Amino acid sequence: MRKTFSKYAVPLATASVLALALSACGGSSGGGSNNAATQNTDGRGPITYVQGKDNSNVVRPLVDKWNAAHPNEQVTFKEQSDQADQQHDDLVQHFQAQDANYDVVDVDVVWTAEFAAKGWLQPLTGSMAFDTSQMLPATVKTATYNNTLYAAPQTSDGGLLYYRKDLVPNPPKTWDEMMSMCSIAKQHNMGCYAGQFAQYEGLTVNAAEAINSAGGQIVDSSGKADVNTPQAKTGLNNLVQAYKDGNIPQQAITYQEEQGRQAFEAGQLLFLRNWPYVYNLAKTDGTSVVKDTFGIAPLPGMTDGKPGASSLGGHNVAMSVYSKHKATALDFMKFMTSAETEQFYATQGSLAPVLSSLYTNPTLTAKLPYLPTLLTSIQNAVPRPVTPYYPAVTKAIQDNAYAALKGDKSVDQALSDMQSALQAAGAK
Amino acid sequence: MSTEVPARTRAKAAPKSSRQMPGRESADRKQVTQGRWASVLLLPTLILLAVVIIYPVVNAIIMSFQKDAGLSSSGFFVQGGFAGADNYVHWLAQQCNGVSCPPGTLGSQFWGAMGTTFLFTAITVVLETVLGFWMAVIMARNFRGRSVIRAAVLVPWAIPTAVTAKLWFFIFAFQGIANTLFNTHILWTGSEWPARWAIIISDTWKTTPFMALLILAGLQLIPDEVYEAAKVDGANAWQRFTQITLPLVRPALMVAILFRVLDALRMYDLPAIMTQGANNTTTLSILVVDQIRQGFNSAAALSTITFLVIFIVAFIFVRFLGANAVGAATSSGKK
To answer: From which residue to which does the signal peptide run (chain A) (predicted)?
Structure first.
């Protein structure tokens, strides 16, 4: 017995001591270290720009262009994976480690508040001030937390209504008008309307659009949950009723962006809510039977003359508080959001600009004919809730909207549960 | 350090005994030196294990007793401080701030996820065991092209799970192969039981080969003579199966089932990709990953709970059902 004990005593003791020692240093993390925000604000030198996978080769030419003009302030491009969740987690890990090498980062609009509240993003105030006066106001809102600008809008995205202009000469202006056109779809033995109704982020986008278009809101201007209202009920009920009536085909409850696009391109849908990326694909895809027979319009609203309120996609560019060369970083952020760069984003990567002037630029509209419609969409857009608790908020919205759509619970119950879940999300 | 103390005492005691028993000393010393050498040689492994296993586990447990960061009045996250057992109460009692967690929060899903996880585990392991056994019995026979069959059977197992999940996601799409083939209009990923069956079918397809191979290994250990003797004694095929094959393959079978159960209890990729956990297909692992994005400390509590659950299941298997995955090594070590 004793022998066995002594044999294992050393390694065991070592292991446990090591574990304790290591766990002791692993304890603390995060926290709003506001000191870092005041340091290195005039630092200049090489920096790193971090962004998700550069699929259409937009970032590299821009970085090369910057580097040619700034030999002493070279930018290194760090490319992340193409999965949004992985990009998010990668940023969190590096910020937690207070990595000074993640100087300028590209953040999804819905992460901005979380990173700002963690104290990781440099507030763009004082000597770091950033001019957003030329940018679309809704995009600036996604970068603003607690009345402070924490990031610069870089690209945007808004919902469009794709419709069959051969069957519906004039696109519907209101939701009710669109529903009344569903008889046309029935005559042609096709589905009437679809969006993204599977239970994932896309449903949050679509439910928020329905609620915002009907004059409701998910959170009020101070960030408090405010979804249990008659307006919100009208909005969500529109979707629920349409699904019940069959105006939204039953399989649409499994649709993400791609399934909806494929159904529309196969001629199975009269109306589709989707992002601008569908435009070029529906025009050029070999399998698309609607190449010349589809049109685009702003999302339908409640009343004529007021288009629907789109949710916003897109990315913001932000600066880490741990950066050693913030003056360079700020210059680079300005470069990445300049009119010239924005135009390059649009032509090279089909990424919607944040500067309103570009939406009427003839060179751009020739290449991307949907831009003027998209401008209307983004001008009427309401960002998804800007909150540090976004993952919990989106879950509260999609879980309950999904249950209401499927008829598992009434719209009233769904909204009241959504309200409670939003409150629980913010308070926990 | 502490090895030296008993080693020294033994060295002191050795001369005394050597008077009576010459030759014992050298054997004893040899044993001691060997023991010390063994410790030294094992040390790197143990340190590595401590770093990659003990440290994360201990740290997770420590974290699980901390509150998640909350917002200060100025809108920044601040450390939550000591939480006591709050995080555990949050999950086990499904309490959010003193009230029952409303639908649409992760907290409200804990027991549902626990049930789903065990449901998936029970059904998939039973299906995989039965089908795997059947495949193993076929593969154990001698016939032309046996090696080709064996290789072919392995294909589903060799495909990465994420790819499998995407594959079945397309098969079970509304206009996918499954509905077209059977001329049905089932919303596979849009309603509760079809979604669960879709996941169960995919998992069975993927993991049955693993079961089959483990069982096959067990089957091949049974000597042919036993069967021949049984035949001579007049046992029919069914009797040979129940009286010889089953009891003799049982050790290998139990280990295979143990592995599968532990694996199925932490199922993540298939439901995560096929349904994103919608329609009550959220497993404990999906819940943990979702929670990590909302707060590390609660997630640490949840993963500790998951760890304990899996540990208890493994314990029951090894202790009561005789799945001897580790015992074989220890018993031979004692000799």
So the answer is: 1-26
